[in-house]
Amino acid sequence: MMEKIRRNERMSAMMKLLSASPNTIQTLGMFCELFGSAKSTMSEDIDLLRGVAERFGLGEIETVTGAAGGVRYRPVVSRESARRTIRDLCHELSGSERLLPGGFLYYSDILSTPGIVNRMGEILATEYYSAMPDFVLTMETKGIPVAFATANALGVPLVIARHSSKVYEGSAVNINYVSGSGNIETMSLSRRAVKENQKALIVDDFLKGGGTARGMIELMREFNVSVIGMAFVMSTVIPEKKRITGARSLMTLEVTGGETPEALVKPAEWLE
Length: 272
What we know:
- It is built from seven helices and twelve strands.
- The chain is an alpha/beta fold.
- Strands 6-5-9-10-11-12 form a six-stranded mixed sheet, with helices on both faces. The protein has a two-stranded antiparallel sheet with strand order 1-2. The chain has a two-stranded antiparallel ribbon with strand order 3-4.
- The longest helix is centred in the N-terminal third of the chain and has 17 residues, at 39-55.
């Protein structure tokens, strides 16, 4: 006979299971079988968890009705919390120490810190839950961490476009595109990576002229896949006119003039 499980134990385990698979529906029956509890008891537990998550800003726990219904957890980040996170990052990234030739900024260390990257992914995912993308698309390599974090929060796969096709990925679609520097480059994606009529969310680390992002849009057109949004960690103020429209970034970068140029990093307008 199964030992009776206390409510606090059930709720702790349930929160762990839900948060380990964001935006994925878990059936009520699965929890009932796991904990040996009635559906009415589990419903009460879920209501309590929902209240706790809302009170402490831990995300949303949502009940989904219907034949395939159940409960799911979404790591939703409030606009106020997102602003605090991004403002702290802007403060750390601004100045002259991280500025690189060509108007670029060194922030690979930021993109390699799991806690920061996961938070950025949750902020971006919060903006696209309602759009329900089927996968997140990025270009190798620097954008992979934040794209993966966004895909994880959305509960969808990550698809990576490459500069050249790999033998172990099978037949691929290759396109040529004009990069931000004006060079003609190649972008490749396995034919098995996506399916027709799916919806893609493009996520990358840096947006300057928009050449690479435009290439990813054209690549998706080859697969008959619609792009429902484009999100970036950082975009440059100059050039003001990009090769894409409707992109959303977390931060903007402007390089000030003078004998010692400095990077002025600000939260994007939509966050403010």
